[in-house]
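Problem 12. The chain below contains 184 residues. Write out its predicted structure in token notation.
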Amino acid sequence: TEDSFFEAYGGTLPKLAEQRGYVIAAPLGYRVDGGYGVALGGGNDPAAKRSRELSEQDVMQVLAEVRKRYAIDDTRIYLMGHSMGAIGTWAIAAKTPAQWSALAVFSGFGVASTARTISTIPQFVVHGDADPTVPVGGSRVMVAALKNVGAVLQYIEVPGGNHTNVVEPNFAAMFDFFERLPRR
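Solution.
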């Protein structure tokens, strides 16, 4: 849920964000099973499609609200997610590529045909090679497609890593990646 990045993963993300001067927003999406961009089931079902579209809209509406309420540096807007949120990160970035300074994707998969569209966005990708929930092959295919179009990316494949134990240990590296990037 939207609380995960604040309460789970050892509470590490909010601590690191505060130390490094970041504001975090974590939208729920339309529903817990919103699907963000690509079908996680439901295929062409109209209700599933509507849920995915509304979930993407929620992400963008939350970003707009955060930008209204806080002094946000437009050259430092990052999109990240884990699992369904990671899948959504790649999907939403493909629809709004000019919006993002970088992406962070943990245990997700993308659509390789979107690689060229998002090739100008630096990307930090983490996946465990023993993930039983979202198989690592999805990240491998996307990373290969991104490399093929010259994207700037850092890929960390964690030997023996499962779906969740690869996230928290890589938050600091994610912030390091963001901070090494030139401002856009």
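Discussion. Strands lie at 78-82, 102-106, 123-128, 153-158. Students who got a different answer should revisit the alignment rule from Section 12.3.
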